[in-house]
Amino acid sequence: MTRSRPGPDAPDSRFGPGRHALRGATLSFHADPFLSDPHASYTHLPDALVVIEDGRIAEAGPYDRLRASVEGSMPVAHYPDALILPGFVDTHIHYPQTQMIGAFGEQLLEWLNKYTFVTEQQFADPAHAAMVSELFLRELLRAGTTTAAVYCTVHPGSVDAFFQASQRFDTRMIAGKVLMDRNAPQALRDTVQSGYEDSRDLIAKWHGNGRQLYCITPRFAATSSQAQLESAARLWREHPGTYMQTHLSENLGEVGWIAELFPDCCDYFEVYRRAGLAGPRAIFAHAVHVSEDELCACHRAGAALSHCPTSNLFLGSGLFRVFDAKRADRPVRVGLGTDIGGGTAFSQLQTLNEAYKVAALNQTRLTAAHAFYLATRGGAHALYLDDRLGAIEPGYEADLVVLDLKSTPLMDFRMRYCADLMERLFVLMTLGDDRAVRATYVAGRPVYDRSRQPAPFRYADGSAAPAPAC
Ligand code: GUN
Ligand code: ZN
Fold it and tell me: Dihedral through CA 142, CA 143, CA 145, CA 151, nearest 10?
């Protein structure tokens, strides 16, 4: 940014209610490159102005066209050598698993028993949940992610801690209490009744409270009885606008177990569909081993799949077929998920790097246009939020990420040999990570600014966000 910079604790006019603007190159998708010409799916402005008012984008267009209306009348943060994108959307992540990323040596079911269920018990302690929530949100913002669909733990206090932390940054988060009434340690089990009542109370407290949205969260069909799945579906029907998230067909051992637990169902998706858990605003993570029938059922339901490549590789789960899921005659909504802590990076750039390799192993090619669509507007579309998130357009919520195209010496060097935008974007997703994030704006406020050292984070009220005491 070239204008004079306030010190880390000085007031920053971009935290006030007034109009302010960002200047720099922008990229925003207006169409789905999986379903139309990828080259015509986005708008790239090499020198743009994004005017923000009351947390929303008021105007966006070429600098030369808009400069007269802003010059001298509002602060402008100028980002040369950068690319301004809509904030990234992560459609699947577990905040309590931040402390267990990189747990060695197991595939899904053993990994859950050996690491996950041990870790998640610590979230009975609200102080621990509050500390991890704060740290987790910082990692998301440091990676340029402004919206995520988040699993808490079975403890209602873990949800309160998470939404309280999210409110301090004013991030639009979707989260919920895990429901688990079987096949888990006693300390992590609820019951059909308590899971229903706790979730109902959390919905009343948090759904639509500021930017927070509630997600009913039966972990997966192996840890919820048929009665609990049906109770989750009832809750979802009773609270229109809420979300539902669970896991689907991630690992072959899991798929076999589900077939034993639900012998009357023809496939895994049918378990959820029959219980009443398939529909718009349902998010199914992984879907690595789904059949054509399941993809068709998912399309008919309007449900979304979350593609989690770093997790699927780390846990040895398999290769998600993104081009198959998005097939034009029956497209399924797909977003990207980091799936921390099965996944290994908060960064959507690193996630795209692995998504490209997964697509390559499936003999397909994920272009930069496909990739950045998935990380922005595609994720918002998967979550039915693409009328307000995932694009740089007037009226959209001003959640933005400013990416540095020269974030490391190697990237700087490599970029000199790129002929056009698509090549630069592809290098960005191949070599980039959180170091490429210069600033993250949430509802128009720069809650993260890499250069604002030693305190790069600020809450929505403009106060410096102290590092959590770990
Ligand atoms: N399936 C059920 N629970 C989990 C979880 O916590 N992580 C992953 N990756 N898969 C799951
Ligand atoms: Zn998961």
Answer: -90
